[in-house]
Amino acid sequence: xxxxxxxxxxxxxxxxxxxxxxxxxxxxxxxxxxxxxxxxxxxxxxxxxxxxxxxxxxxxxxxxxxxxxxxxxxxxxxxxxxxxxxxxxxxxxxxxxxxxxxxxxxxxxxxxxxxxxxxxxxxxxxxxxxxxxxxxxxxxxxxxxxxxxxxxxxxxxxxxxxxxxxxxxxxxxxxxxxxxxxxxxxxxxxxxxxxxxxxxxxxxxxxxxxxxxxxxxxxxxxxxxxxxxxxxxxxxxxxxxxxxxxxxxxxxxxxxxxxxxxxxxxxxxxxxxxxxxxxxxxxxxxxxxxxxxxxxxxxxxxxxxxxxxxxxxxxxxxxxxxxxxxxxxxxxxxxxxxxxxxxxxxxxxxxxxxxxxxxxxxxxxxxxxxxxxxxxxxxxxxxxxxxxxxxxxxxxxxxxxxxxxxxxxxxxxxxxxxxxxxxxxxxxxxxxxxxxxxxxxxxxxxxxxxxxxxxxxxxxxxxxxxxxxxxxxxxxxxxxxxxxxxxxxxxxxxxxxxxxx
Length: 501
Fold this sequence. Notes:
Elements: E1 5-9, E2 15-19, E3 22-24, E4 27-29, E5 36-41, E6 46-52, H1 56-71, H2 73-76, H3 80-96, H4 98-109, H5 113-134, E7 142-146, E8 149-157, E9 160-164, H6 170-183, E10 187-191, H7 199-210, E11 217-220, H8 224-232, E12 239-243, H9 246-256, E13 262-266, E14 272-275, H10 281-293, E15 305-309, H11 313-327, H12 346-361, E16 365-368, E17 386-389, H13 396-399, E18 406-412, H14 415-423, E19 432-434, H15 438-447, E20 454-455, E21 474-475, E22 488-496
Parallel strand pairs: 9-10, 9-12, 10-11, 12-13, 14-15, 14-19, 15-18, 17-18, 19-20
Antiparallel strand pairs: 1-2, 3-4, 5-6, 7-8, 8-22, 13-21, 16-17
Helix pairs in contact: 3-5, 3-7, 4-5, 5-6, 10-11
């Protein structure tokens, strides 16, 4: 066991034991192949730790454990209130270990520690507690058909759920998926992103400590083409839930079709934010900045296309640039005054820089940023907050998801033009509208083709409210009561009360 944990000391001085094994049946084990993946600190490009990477054989073992746990009396017959209490106990443990979890999240993801602690980890505990409260409120219904039949439905678990989470919000996305799955009585095989493999393993310890039976939650690290593909195509997994890019989502769908798995996808976005001339301009600027620049721009719902009415366009740009200069302090994510840390990996860093060059070559105007932002030692995957204006709708930077601190600002004249251009995309995840005219706000909200619309705010999501997209931004919904629907199936029971043959 000693070789499955290592002692680490984070840049903020916090010391802890980091699990590095695969978590199967409530135990950490080495992978069968012995293969590992390495976590890199994006702030200084140094290695943090290497953890075991699961092979297809390891996935088989995790799925077998989940399948056994699904029908074991310790889980199947556990009263629903007790199941919810386990989740609430886990939420309390997350609160207790919040500083360590946030430290790990910042270290291998790069997000500011203040955000990891005050927003991400806090959301994990809240989401688990919320769904723990739902566990004993999931029920079917009695259906009145005729005096000769008594009919009712049961809401039963889907079964063994494969869950694949992204690197931008590792712990938060895990809670979004674990919460409803466990509340409904499913078992889980969860794969973390290979870029951020550490925090989820620490959470695994807390799952065991909370009292979940062996095999209910199994957590694997590994590469997408190996571990992820094995999960998506596994014949003994009943459902796949995936958050990530649209391109990968398509591949997941293809692989999941082998046994017609139930599927939930939350994929890419190029979300519009519309600012009308009657908006509260100060608030529109501040929310627009949060909507794209928070979390280093690495948010699927980032409002990365800002459309501003022509009469206030120039003023908005001046105010937005000033907001970036005043607020977007780039640097060490463990410093209290840092707003923006590094991009998560070198690959993501280089991708954003390539889009900057694309914007320049296509003739857009670089208003601010557009360059690397290195620390004193020339290290780290930092990029200066980047704003392009004079952008045409045909440009790559206007149409493609970039996933960085990178925004395009364009002007429009009429409401109809704004809506048409907002909807001119293959995506449909988030959107935002700024106006003091609430009649207009609700009218525009109905016409925007997106799963979510924020009115006079941006990206202030809530675990009690459904989250998801339309078009190529995904299938199904997570969070809120709606999120439970993805993790149960309806069974109809017909009782003959008098029909005789």
